[in-house]
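>> received
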Amino acid sequence: MRTPSTRRRLVAAAATACVMALTATACGSSDQAAESGPKDVKSALEKGGKLTVWAWEPTLKKAAAEFEKKYPKVDVELVNAGTGDKQYTALQNAIAAGSGAPDVAQLEYYAVSQFAIGKSVEDLSSYGAAKLDKTFSAGPWSAVHTGDAVHALPMDSGPMALFYNKRVFDKHSIAVPTTWDAYVEAARKLHKADPKISITNDTGDAGATTSLIWQAGGRPYKSQDTEVTVNFTDAGTKKYADTWQKLLDEKLVAPVSSWSDEWYKGLADGSIATLAIGAWMPANFVSGVASASGDWRVAPLPQWTEGAKASAENGGSSLAVPKAAKNKELAYAFSEFVTTGAGASARVAEGAFPATKADLDSKKFQDTKFPYFGGQRANKVFAESARNVGTGWSYLPYQVYANSVFNDTVGKAYVSATPLSQGLTAWQQASVKYGTDQGFSVNK
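>> returned
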């Protein structure tokens, strides 16, 4: 789990890097795209060498072995430098020190723009990434590129779905909700039938909140170079806030933190009846909620408008090449291999959820039966969700900081009488102030 202290350490280091970039040139502009032709990646593969890859994603081990088998002159060293913010802090420190940075680094999508705007990562378009614009599903691809610049390659994705406890729903004759209004009604019925059952858990989570706002059509963040907009007053955000407020007011969500022992227990015994979360979740059910095998199923996300098919991403990460990398061409070759084609398929076979359209659309992938979900072909639901992810979403170039103050602002709605809408306003104000302090032109 991430902690406020690790987030804030990263924020301080990344902010310094971005301020330096702001004084030198416009953040986010590409200084590589004008170079002629792809880098000489082929020669780098023939020459070989050692690559250091900082990543925590477990399926990379299999893909790295396949890469070394295909290119025997290359030695890949996988290093777990910490998950999420812990790695970002270490990476930013190495970049600032001018030594110790890896050749490849795993970055979650919400963190990509922060490293890109600080010019800490390579623009991969001149290495061959420009040709991959049709390779990945829309959500992940939009998260890693700005204009013609490609800051990282999508490694996996998290199109959202509704995981629900069929045993609990059947016992209490509850229909699987197809709209969020129906979801609220299902929450009421379940809680009335058994006060120990909550429709879901929620103690305030920035990623979950922004994902549901994304699905509702909200686009609170916009950025172009140093121009940034933060606006939590649009119609999509209001839809989310009004609906979720009902669940909070009526105490229909369990005040249980995700990934806690209590959370796993609630998923196992049915007292937490649904999760709206990314398609990477099944492996966590299998490993952490084994006793409930056969109880759970997967359905499309409830819709904000009856008959719609909108979805959003929740989670997922990419591979970036730091500017301080020693062998950038080889680093790019590895990144492309493990995120596309045979490398991506090898990772999918190990349990990764693909960001590549070819894997998402393959019959083998979609026909896979999940014993945990009663033999359901759950990938059909996930693949459809990936196709319906709303376009036009973007994160702030300092999203890591924004997420770190979520519990200080929006989080108050979960522990006091503060309305969600008021918490979102406070989050907006904090994000505007921080961006302005760092040299961005925010909401002007």
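>> The CA atoms of residues 345 and 359 lie 7 Å apart.
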